[in-house]
Amino acid sequence: MSTDTGPPQGQLKYMTPFPIAPDPPTPKPIPDIIHPDRSLAERAAARFSLAGKHAIVTGGAQGLGLVSARALLDHGVSHLAIFDVDEKQGEAALEHYRDASMNEESKPVVVFKKVDVTDEAMVNEAVQDVSHNFGTIDILLCFAGITDSKLAVDYPIEQWRRIFDVNVHGSFLVARAVARDIIARSSSGSIVFTASMSGYIVNTPQPHSAYAVSKAGVHHLTRSMAAEWVGHNIRVNSISPGIMNTRLSGGPAQAGLRRLWMERSPMGMGDPEDLTGAVILLCSDAGKFMTGVDIRIEGGYTIF
C-alpha cells in the first residue's frame, strides 16, 4: 500500500535551460577553410589538439586509465592530475608520465593524488585543490572502476553495493565536483565516463550482474548529466570498451575465458591504446558537437 506524500516541499528546481542559438548564416556552396593561414598538417592537428588544457583522470595509475591519460599528454594537455586509490602504483605512474612526455620545451605539470572516489569529502577537497593549483579544469576522464563475478543467487549485498559505490557513485561524485567548479568559473569542459559493452549485453559466460547493471547506469548517468549541464557548456559522453588486453583479462587464470571471448569477438581482443582515439575525439574540438553519446569500442562483439 503506497502513501501519498503530497507535493514537493520547498522550491522546485529545474534543469538549467540551454540558450537558443541564433540562426546561422546561409551556407556557402564551397565553405570557407577554417584557419586558412595554417598548413594542411597544422589544420589536421588542430582538430584534435588539447594544447594548454588541464585534465583530471581517475583510475589513471594503471591499465586503461593510464594509457588514455598518456594520450592526453601526447595531444598537448599541459596540466594533468591523476586520482587513484593505490598510492604506490600512483607514484610509479607519475614517473612514467613524466618520462613519457616528449615535449622538452614545455614539460607538462603532472601530479598524483590518492583519492577514493567513493569518499565525497576527499573527492571535493582533491578537485578544489587541483582547480586552485591549475586555475581551471577542462577535461575529466573517469576510469576508476571495479568488477566482480558472482552468481546472483550468491551475491553478498555488501559486495553488490561496493560495485555501485565505485562505478556509479564514484563517477557521479567526481563529475559533480568538476562540474561545480566549471559552472562557478563560467568556463567549459568535457567529461568522459567509462562504461562497458556489458551495459548493453549479458556478457556471458561469467556472471557479473552487479558490474553489468552498474555500467548500464553509467550510460544513463551520461545522458542525464549531459542534459543537465549542456546549458553550462559542459559536454558529457562515455566510452564502452569491450574485451581489452589488460591484467584482468591477460593472465593465465583467464585462459579458458579468453578462448570463449575470442570465439565471440570478430576483431579479437582490443589493446588499451584502441580507446585513445575516441577519448581524444570527445575531449577535443573534433567532438565539440557531441554530448550525451556513448561510443562502443568492442571489436564488433555486440553485433551478433
Automatic annotation (TrEMBL):
<comment type="pathway">
    <text>Carbohydrate metabolism; D-arabinitol metabolism.</text>
</comment>
<protein>
    <recommendedName>
        <fullName>D-arabinitol 2-dehydrogenase [ribulose-forming]</fullName>
        <ecNumber>1.1.1.250</ecNumber>
    </recommendedName>
</protein>
<dbReference type="InterPro" id="IPR036291">
    <property type="entry name" value="NAD(P)-bd_dom_sf"/>
</dbReference>
<dbReference type="Pfam" id="PF13561">
    <property type="entry name" value="adh_short_C2"/>
</dbReference>
<feature type="region of interest" description="Disordered">
    <location>
        <begin position="1"/>
        <end position="23"/>
    </location>
</feature>
<dbReference type="GO" id="GO:0050664">
    <property type="term" value="F:oxidoreductase activity, acting on NAD(P)H, oxygen as acceptor"/>
</dbReference>
<dbReference type="InterPro" id="IPR002347">
    <property type="entry name" value="SDR_fam"/>
</dbReference>
<comment type="similarity">
    <text>Belongs to the short-chain dehydrogenases/reductases (SDR) family.</text>
</comment>
<dbReference type="GO" id="GO:0047038">
    <property type="term" value="F:D-arabinitol 2-dehydrogenase activity"/>
</dbReference>
<dbReference type="GO" id="GO:0005975">
    <property type="term" value="P:carbohydrate metabolic process"/>
</dbReference>
<keyword id="KW-0560">Oxidoreductase</keyword>
<keyword id="KW-0521">NADP</keyword>
<dbReference type="InterPro" id="IPR020904">
    <property type="entry name" value="Sc_DH/Rdtase_CS"/>
</dbReference>
